[in-house]
Amino acid sequence: MPAASHSPWRHLPNAISMLRVLLVAPICWLLWHRQWSSALMLVAVAGVSDGLDGFLARHYGWQSRLGGMLDAIADKLLLVSCFVILAWLGEAPLWLAAIVCGRDLVIACGALLWRLLIGRIYPQPSLLSKACTLMQIVYLLTVLLALAHWPAPDATPFVWLVAALCVASGADYVVRWSHRAWHTRRAV
After folding, report:
1. What is the structure's pLDDT at 69?
2. Reported confidence tier of residue 2, pLDDT bands at 50, 70, 90
3. Domain range for residue 178?
4. Structural domain tally of the chain?
5. Of 10, 45, 94, 144, whose CB is crowded by the most CB atoms within 10 A?
6. What pLDDT band is residue 1 in, cutting at 50, 70 and 90?
7. How far apart are CA 71 and CA 57, in angstroms?
8. Which of the pair, 180 or 142, is modelled with greater confidence?
9. How far apart are CA 9 and CA 12, in angstroms?
10. What is the pTM of this model?
11. d(CA 79, CA 114)
């Protein structure tokens, strides 16, 4: 097998992340027009592709700084858009959409500050952050299953789990990256 850096497939995880970015517009359109079944299918594709690109990147050593950034951008665009639209339409709690958006705003502001004050940033999602993303996708799929009149579990436990994971992972990012910033700035 060729070295990971020379494989013709090494850009596949980035292409999959770009596909997720491109899926955001049609998913938003479908949600806005209450085309629940079609939106469900595309959100499911986006959710599976999120796991697939990460698996391929780690398993084959195809990780890159660009890939980490594309993955984070794709996740944030997809999840924030879906939560905002569903909350606007009254299909998800407004307060939950605010927590999801607030967490991502805190992370984005922290990344911007890091870039301005310290330098290049290399996205390193924690297990807590990955669990948060996974539960947001599970929640969206559960809501869309119910809206499309498919058998679906009660979304209420997922509401509280998503809220708790958003708060915990947001706080975790602030603590971990503040600690890193403190030590990085002291070393200079």
Report:
1. 85
2. very low
3. 8-187
4. 1
5. 144
6. very low
7. 11
8. 142
9. 5
10. 0.89
11. 23
